[in-house]
Amino acid sequence: MSAASPVTPGLVVVDKAGGMTSHDVVARVRRLAGTRKVGHAGTLDPMATGVLVLGVDRATRLLGHLMLTDKAYDAVVRLGESTTTDDAEGETLAVAPPDALAALTEDAVREAFAAFVGDIEQVPTAVSAIKVDGKRAYQRVRDGEDVQLAARPVTVHALEVHEVALPEVRISVRCSSGTYIRAIARDVGARLGVGGHLTALRRTAVGPYGLDVAATLEDLADGFAVLPIADAARAAFPAVDLDDAGAADVRVGRSLDVALPALTALFAPDGTFLALYEPREGRARPVAVFV
């Protein structure tokens, strides 16, 4: 992919390097694709690496729907120290006495993490991108404000503890969108009475898009292709292939007498991705039309 190439609407799944913001990645892909119409589905902190899904051209309209999908992470939690940002980039708030950390057993650590599996109420980290009265929480913190965010319902589908080598614990998490792994580190540390924070985070999947289909920015510079919008839609949503009459109705946003299981991608007979429809009031009704 280069600035001289025509823009192909679709997704670019990037394996983000550490030290870059999500906006840094978007800016780089804009230059490579030769278009400013590039967006991302969910941010990654500069410290974090891994899957960042970008949309190019009209595929940017898919991103809002992809942001609602489940995500998966590998992470390292350090117990015994809490920080202002709940990760290694923040300032130290408190350090547990050495004997408190030494008293922790592996079983106790595993039980503490297990308590955060399922539907939970989670208080996001204060330096999150959540808006408070129109202003990002992290910006309010940078401006010296005391930010108190309300707890929000999230779902941790699975949390596997791979290794307990105190003070560090290696885990994998599969969770709903909006779950903060930093907050899990903080809350497990609080539950154990020693504090905790995140020292490493790697996102391994966003919905159906994993590291196996991700490319580094270096790969992209060498011409890594975008995932065409039709393929991206089939991978992320249930799919229905329409006949010519149904496709004509969808092109003008008409509702259909078609049973859908959920938010569904609809396709023309020639394979063109037409729209996202959802079941509503007994019919299939448009959510977003892409043609």
From TrEMBL:
Claim: tRNA processing is one of the keywords in the record: yes
Transmembrane segments: none
Record domain tRNA pseudouridine synthase II TruB subfamily 2 C-terminal: where: 237-290
Active-site residues, as the UniProt record annotates them: D45
EC number annotated for this UniProt entry: 5.4.99.25
Sections of the chain in a coiled coil: none
Catalytic activity: uridine(55) in tRNA = pseudouridine(55) in tRNA
InterPro entries in the record: PsdUridine_synth_cat_dom_sf (IPR020103), PsdUridine_synth_N (IPR002501), PUA-like_sf (IPR015947), PUA_sf (IPR036974), tRNA_psdUridine_synth_fam2_C (IPR015225), tRNA_psdUridine_synth_TruB (IPR014780), TruB_C (IPR032819)
Start and end residues of each tRNA pseudouridylate synthase B C-terminal domain: 182-223
Origin superkingdom: Bacteria
All copies of domain Pseudouridine synthase II N-terminal, residue ranges: 30-181
Keywords: Isomerase, tRNA processing
Presence of the UniProt keyword Translocase in the record: no
NCBIfam families for this protein: TruB (TIGR00431)
Family of this protein: Belongs to the pseudouridine synthase TruB family. Type 1 subfamily.
Biological function: Responsible for synthesis of pseudouridine from uracil-55 in the psi GC loop of transfer RNAs.
PANTHER family in UniProt: PSEUDOURIDYLATE SYNTHASE TRUB1 (PTHR13767:SF2), TRNA-PSEUDOURIDINE SYNTHASE (PTHR13767)
This protein's name: tRNA pseudouridine synthase B
Species whose genome carries this gene: Nocardioides fonticola
UniProt gene name: truB
